Amino acid sequence: HLSHSEYPIKLAMWDFGQCDAKKCTGRKLNRLGYLRALRLSQAFSGIILSPVGKETVSFSDRDIVAQSGVAVVDCSWALIDETPINKIKGQHHRLL
Description:
alpha/beta
């Protein structure tokens, strides 16, 4: 069991608040200190796992992950058209 300070990569999340807060793994990881919550206006320099990614994560992303980490977009697929994902700032969007 690793503590959040020993975790090998940086983790972050944009939470659109569209899921059940009691069942949300992302929110739990945030509460436990394993990831940081990002505001919509905040940019992220690592890999961003999102529904708007054009490529899958690959071995060639290894250096980006090691240096800058991974962020996820936590949203509901049922509400994807109403979610302002295009406002998320970052260069390395990948498919979920």
